[in-house]
Specification:
- By secondary structure, this protein is an alpha+beta fold.
- The chain contains six helices and 16 strands.
- It has a seven-stranded mixed sheet with strand order 2-1-3-11-4-14-9, with helices on both faces. Strands 8-7-10 form a three-stranded antiparallel sheet. The protein has a two-stranded antiparallel ribbon with strand order 5-6.
- It starts with a strand and ends with a helix.
């Protein structure tokens, strides 16, 4: 994939130092591959900030791809290369890296690490705790911690926007579905799938996520052993 990639992120006015350092490294090493950066600064509802990011990407850049990444993560040059090499504008227009969220776990001194790649089931979105390592495969939903999206997907979402939402706020929202609160990233994924676009995960691209420590697949494997 030789198209331009715009990196987009949201923050409340500050970013993690390690995130900033990896962005500097990436700009130095892969500047010819990168389009304009998009940064949305503000607080409040994350869905509002993410919508502003996508609108700015579509209206203010000519890049073919938007790489959404949270400002408390690390993206190495090697992982950037591996992620974009696994993408394709038609066959794999949405590719997520492997990012972990953390939730309290009474059985362990560590929070429970949850990979934010999901299967959409009648019982709701279930995280894929068992996955093939260093593989690219189709999934039903992903978080937006580190996800690469082709421009055509976002444009189609805008073209088919609900009139009540309007074309500037049509990508992200959250709310109750069948009595359960669904986050903006999962509803975003569900709409992408409903429009006929596949979503893939690349589990060879593991993105450290800064909580009280850098959370990655080593912690997830430890939790798996403890809960086997």
């Amino acid at each position: 994939m030789a198209h331009k990639v715009t990196i987009g992120s949201c923050d409340n006015g500050t970013v993690d130092g390690s995130y900033a350092y990896t962005m500097i490294q990436l700009a130095q090493a892969r500047g010819s591959r990168l389009g304009p950066f998009v940064r949305v600064k503000g607080s409040g509802m994350i869905s509002k900030q993410r919508n502003r990011m996508v609108k700015q990407f579509l209206d203010s850049t000519k890049s073919d791809w938007l790489l959404m990444i949270d400002s408390d993560e690390q993206l190495s040059v090697a992982n950037f290369d591996k992620l974009i090499e696994s993408a394709h504008d038609v066959e794999r227009p949405v590719v997520s890296a492997l990012v972990f969220a953390s939730f309290g776990d009474p059985k362990s001194v560590y929070p429970k690490p949850v990979p934010v790649i999901f299967q959409d089931t009648p019982k709701g979105f279930l995280p894929l705790n068992r996955y093939d390592e260093d593989a690219v495969f189709e999934i039903d939903a992903c978080g937006t911690g580190c996800v690469l999206i082709h421009r055509s997907v976002l444009e189609k979402m805008r073209e088919t926007a609900d009139p009540n939402q309007g074309q500037d706020w049509c990508w992200f929202w959250d709310g109750p579905i069948n009595g359960e609160w669904i986050g903006e990233d999962l509803l975003f994924s569900r709409r992408i799938k409903n429009l006929g676009f596949p979503i893939h995960a690349n589990t060879g691209v593991v993105i450290p996520h800064h909580k009280s420590y850098w959370l990655d697949d080593k912690h997830h494997k430890k939790w798996q052993r403890e809960n086997a």
